[in-house]
Design a protein that fits this description.
Rossmann fold, seven-stranded parallel sheet, 2 domains, six-stranded parallel sheet, alpha/beta
Amino acid sequence: MTRMRVALIASSRHPVREPFAGGLEAHTWSLARVLTRRGHKVTLFAAPGSDPELDVLELPVRRAVLSEAARADVSMPDPARMDEHHAYLRLMLDLARDGDLRFDVVHNNSLHYLPVAMASALPLPVVTTLHTPPTPWLESAVQAQDDCPVVFTAVSDFTAGAWLATVPAARVVRNGIDTRLWPVGQGGGGLVWSGRLVPEKGPHLAIEAARRAGLPLVLAGPVGDRAYFEEQVAPGLGGDIVHAGHLAQADLAELLGRADAALVTPMWDEPYGLVVAEALACGTPVCGFRRGALPEIVTPACGVLGPPGDAAALARLLPRAMALSRHAARERAVTFCCVERAADAYTALYEEVAA
């Protein structure tokens, strides 16, 4: 095995630490840990406050000093977006200056366009993982270069297909979890839903499905949209339907392991769905909507998928999901959703592009 020096670029919006803001941060943390465990030198460029047990260099998220005239201009973006732009610009300029002396490869695991737009200025190869459907800034960054030097991966077949027009050769490397941190539970505790409480994740539909099925439900995750939570989620809480808050990984794993089934209710086309992998690893079958990449992960042995947006159909499918084998759910996670598989693929890709 070649020992690689990897510059792993994370999102600047949230620290890469527990409790994770979302699946992107959780996957980045797991990937950095497993690559380091294998002997690679991984430097994580991430938001301030990220896990100090990782080799972290904080992204320079410092507010640019703008004149009053600039701040008053009609083109002035939201200050947070300006900070993010400034951070990635500084990072890419630093890597352009001496990146080849410090690293063998840059792995852009962020959602920002600058690591792609400036890749041709770097003296070392750049790998970018596509975590979302196409965005205008990222598509523009790809097209701005006549021969874009970036090697792209996508987190699912679905996501690779969504990017086909702009990135026709993205390799599929699915996100993964450290299944050792998600032990099998015994079930018996009703239903669970996990994730950010935002409209596109549809927790209000999980509540409706649980109510229709007459089953207890625990929701776990951070409130990402306060207005949505107060208007559509909070009114459905009460009795045996509760919000447990934003849990640390070990606590979430225990909660998942106690559940008979995990509800997964995306209102958009999920590019991957890390919450599915986490539930399956804990032996908990999935009952969710057939959207995005979920059909790639969920097989008839470990879950049941119904029509998107139909909470009544989900309620009817719950008995089937709850009767599925917890062993089969765990086996699916270990063989299809583990971070070791992702690390194998990325290590081979790093060696390929560095050569």
